[in-house]
């Protein structure tokens, strides 16, 4: 992976670990975890549904953090718009388990990995 766009809420929702009790804290944790991929040479952007949270933006470090207000699936629409606007979508991989988004990602010329695959890769980096 050279460039990765993460469907943040989809990745969070893929593991029922209580993330919904404190959504900004869960978003912050994921963002910090994604920083390990940046250290491994991947350009990472995470897009969350909803309004910006300063706490999450501050956690970004080298990870680009975006928010997509506009209701359900706003992040999906934002991700597809970014792919369509990119001069080289084939260099981008999107992490999501959303079937409709994965289909739109493929149609835009990018690749995808499942949320579970992304989390497994992060866990492998964390183990060293």
Bulk shape: globular
Helix content: 40-55%
* Whole-number tally of structural domains: 1
Mean pLDDT, rounded to whole units? Answer: 94
Q: How would you describe this protein?
A:
This protein is of the alpha/beta class and 128 residues long. It has a single domain (3-127), classed as Rossmann fold. The protein is built from 6 helices and 5 strands; from the N terminus they run βααβαβαβαβα. The longest helix has 17 residues, at 23-39. The mean pLDDT is 94.
Topology:
Blueprint: E1 3-7, H1 8-13, H2 23-39, E2 43-49, H3 54-59, E3 64-68, H4 74-85, E4 92-95, H5 99-107, E5 111-113, H6 115-127
Parallel strand pairs: 1-2, 1-4, 2-3, 4-5
Keyphrases for this structure?
49% helix; globular; 128 residues; five-stranded parallel β-sheet; alpha/beta; Rossmann fold
Summarize the structure in short.
This protein is α/β, with parallel strands linked by helices.
